[in-house]
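Retro notes (design track)

What went well: tokenization of the new backbones is finally stable.
What didn't: we kept losing track of which sequence belonged to which structure.
Fix going forward: every design gets posted as structure first, then sequence, in one message. First example under the new rule, 802 residues:
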């Protein structure tokens, strides 16, 4: 521990002075800070303190400072007098010269006479010592730590009274403490628990692994600073290159007092094994376990902390460093930039995927440009690749775009399959990607791939071991990570940067390859509930890679509709409408069919009035183009009637269906599905909802006998009519019979539609309702679900043609 005198002017360098004092105290040096500006003896007390110290640190900006009037023939400031006294006493001097001027009003720039004194002082410092220049807090602390360590090294070499292999002073080389570190307290606690385990023989080892830019080094440095008072040796080693790591061990061996000529690694290991005090080594950015294994001390009372992008480490050592939670990331952007726009901060945090490097880069850019978070967000959505290469983040040496460039280049040369796989994944959604499902040999798929992509992808389609090798290669750089059985995840910015770095001529080939692979994996029949899990996992990737008019998107929309995800299905159909209008024209039959689907699902998603108006507009087109008796026009009339009722006019809907029934029977026939499922069913329904529950019950009873004969007992329309007959039986006053009918219906609905389908949930609600109204019959009790549709809604099958 050294006594260090800190010299500076006060008004313009308050924050810088405090940062230096804090760093010195954390490094367990005795910082001398005795300047009393109102004291009559300030000059003498300061100069006496300088002479009693081991080291002198000067922070010099663009202000000259106080000039004592007595005994000062040259009219020097106290700061300049202190600098000269340290030189006279032979005390090592560290000088830190500020190049930036944050506040001109606190400088002497406006006073030519004092500015000349500042310039002369700065020239004197530059002649006598080798000053470090800084413009921000990071540069200040970097210059301080380098200068202090260099002067301590010189003192150690001339100190002939050292006893023992480890110097009495702390052996320390550590990056400055992170200025900005958000949302990592839990991870630091977990790291502390791992490295503080009792009963572990030899040094305790932990590996912080994760994506480049996740903040692994910052986390390691913060941990080290928090435990400085426990360690006699705390040394940070760059571990990316074996030669540089070996040189770092040679420096550490010299600091520990190893005899010249000894193997530095063996010398360090021996000294640390015998060290009386705990020690901490930080191996920063290790490529793999093999690259650092011979350097890790095998014994001694120490801790070894490794940072690495590689996820492949022995069990119990690796600790994943995830991206930040969106809320934490948004709060960081607000506090870092001073922009209080919480909404823009949260949205930008989501677009940046919570990656600390990208967040810091964005904040630095906003701060430097004088812009806002909302402005940066708008620009980022338009020019993502450009902004990922801009900004000068504090505590990071590279931007987001350059952080992964070396990894991409290594993959391209060493593992072309992995590089190709990453390009394929770049055009998927930023959610878990069902890789095993996508990479399967399918008839004709290879022929759909562009010539530029086929040679790389075909081996992955044909050989699952090639896929495993590619995933392992990506995990060595944390460019992909397992996300469940057969699933992998890729950070959204890795996707963006990967896609952006593909040469322009190849980008369309890889985008088309991703679309072909996803298209081929989408099941052919959306009505098969057994295929719904496959549809669900492929949905976001289909939306990312396929056009709205793609036929496979129609199958996905059908799955969403059939499974009860009406709002999501509506949105897909709206996209289809836009695509078909652009490609086929506004009145093409396929465009009109998509409009009808979108209108129907608008109503199913809760906007009955909107659906009614959309079908009314569509009806006018159908009647003009195809005639009033065309099936499409008839369906549109029926939908106008239905959504008239669902919008609140049950009597109006009843009357419209009553007028429409003879038309359907004349044009389509009395047993046609649309006559039964659309007109007669809804006529019964709105008869009941208009106040005649008994009439509705009787109409459903007559209808049910027909649909069971025509459609079969397991048809969705049959289930719908059974449910509505039970409903109106109860509402007509016979709750016990309604209860029994829903009891029989519920297991059939769960089997055919699924337990979470809206119609199944509605049946459970009504069973609970009529159980309460009709009394509990013998048998197992049934509870209503905690979250379910309103019992006043109407059961309607999702497959009914709009």
């Amino acid at each position: 521990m050294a006594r260090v005198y800190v010299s500076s002017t006060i008004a313009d360098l308050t924050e810088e002075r405090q940062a230096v004092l804090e760093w010195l105290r954390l490094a367990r040096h005795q910082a001398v800070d005795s300047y009393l500006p109102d004291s009559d003896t300030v000059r003498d007390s300061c100069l006496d303190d300088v002479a009693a110290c081991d080291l002198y640190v000067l922070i010099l900006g663009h202000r000259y400072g106080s000039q004592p009037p007595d005994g000062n023939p040259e009219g020097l400031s106290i700061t300049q007098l202190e600098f000269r006294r340290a030189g006279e006493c032979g005390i090592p001097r560290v000088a830190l010269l500020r190049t930036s001027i944050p506040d001109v009003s606190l400088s002497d720039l406006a006073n030519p006479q004092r500015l000349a004194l500042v310039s002369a002082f700065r020239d004197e410092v530059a002649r006598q010592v080798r000053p470090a220049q800084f413009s921000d807090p990071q540069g200040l602390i970097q210059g301080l730590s380098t200068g202090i360590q260099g002067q301590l090294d010189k003192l150690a070499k001339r100190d002939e009274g050292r006893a023992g292999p480890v110097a009495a002073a702390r052996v320390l080389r550590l990056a400055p403490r992170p200025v900005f570190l958000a949302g990592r307290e839990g991870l630091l606690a977990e790291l502390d628990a791992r490295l503080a385990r009792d009963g572990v023989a030899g040094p305790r080892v932990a590996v912080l692994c994760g994506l480049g830019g996740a903040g692994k080094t910052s986390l390691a440095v913060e941990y080290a600073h928090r435990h400085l008072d426990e360690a006699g040796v705390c040394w940070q080693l760059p571990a990316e290159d074996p030669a540089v790591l070996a040189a770092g061990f040679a420096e550490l061996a010299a600091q520990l007092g190893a005899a010249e000529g000894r193997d530095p690694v063996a010398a360090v290991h021996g000294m640390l094994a015998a060290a009386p005090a705990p020690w901490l080594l930080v191996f920063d950015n290790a490529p793999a376990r093999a690259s650092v294994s011979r350097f890790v001390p095998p014994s001694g009372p120490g801790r070894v902390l490794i940072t690495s992008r590689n996820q492949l480490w022995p069990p119990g050592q690796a600790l994943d460093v995830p991206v930040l939670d969106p809320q934490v990331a948004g709060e960081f952007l607000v506090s870092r930039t001073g922009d209080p726009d919480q909404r823009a901060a949260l949205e930008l945090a989501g677009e940046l995927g919570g990656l600390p490097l990208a967040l810091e880069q964005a904040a630095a850019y906003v701060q430097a440009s004088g812009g806002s978070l909302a402005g940066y967000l708008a620009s980022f959505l338009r020019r993502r690749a450009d902004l990922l290469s801009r900004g000068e983040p504090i505590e990071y040496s590279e931007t987001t775009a350059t952080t992964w460039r070396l990894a991409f280049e290594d993959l391209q040369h060493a593992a072309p399959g992995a590089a190709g796989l990453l390009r394929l994944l770049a055009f998927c959604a930023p959610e878990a990607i069902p890789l095993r499902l996508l990479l399967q040999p399918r008839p004709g798929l290879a022929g759909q791939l562009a010539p530029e992509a086929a040679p790389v992808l075909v081996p992955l389609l044909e050989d699952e071991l090639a896929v495993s090798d590619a995933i392992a290669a990506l995990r060595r750089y944390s460019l992909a990570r397992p996300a469940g059985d057969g699933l992998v995840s890729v950070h959204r910015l890795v996707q963006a940067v990967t896609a952006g770095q593909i040469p322009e001529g190849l980008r369309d080939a890889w985008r088309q390859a991703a679309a072909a692979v996803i298209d081929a994996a989408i099941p052919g029949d959306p009505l098969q509930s057994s295929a719904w899990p496959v549809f669900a996992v492929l949905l976001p990737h289909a939306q990312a890679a396929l056009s709205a008019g793609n036929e496979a998107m129609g199958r996905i929309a059908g799955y969403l509709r059939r499974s009860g995800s009406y709002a999501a299905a509506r949105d897909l159909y709206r996209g289809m409408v836009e695509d078909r209008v652009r490609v086929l024209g506004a009145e093409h039959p396929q465009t009109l069919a998509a409009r009808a689907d979108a209108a129907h699902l608008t109503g199913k998603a809760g906007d009955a009035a909107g659906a009614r108006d959309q079908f009314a507009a569509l009806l006018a087109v159908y009647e003009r183009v195809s005639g009033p008796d065309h099936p499409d026009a008839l369906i549109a009339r029926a939908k106008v009637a239905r959504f008239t009722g669902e919008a609140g006019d049950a009597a109006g809907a009843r009357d419209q269906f009553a007028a429409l029934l003879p038309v359907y029977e004349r044009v389509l026939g009395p047993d046609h599905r649309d006559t039964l499922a659309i007109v007669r069913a809804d006529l019964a329904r709105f008869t009941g909802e208009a106040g005649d529950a008994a009439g509705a019950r009787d109409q459903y009873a007559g209808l049910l006998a027909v649909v069971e004969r025509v459609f079969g007992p397991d048809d969705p329309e049959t289930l719908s009519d059974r449910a509505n007959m039970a409903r109106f039986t109860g509402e007509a006053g016979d709750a016990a019979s309604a209860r029994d009918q829903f009891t029989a219906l519920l297991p059939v609905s769960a089997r055919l539609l699924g337990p979470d389908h809206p119609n199944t949930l509605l049946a459970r609600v009504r069973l609970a309702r009529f159980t309460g109204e009709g009394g509990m019959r013998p048998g197992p009790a049934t509870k209503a679900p905690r979250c379910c549709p309103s019992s006043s809604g109407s059961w309607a099958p999702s497959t009914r043609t709009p």
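Added context from the reviewer: The CA atoms of residues 530 and 754 lie 10 Å apart.
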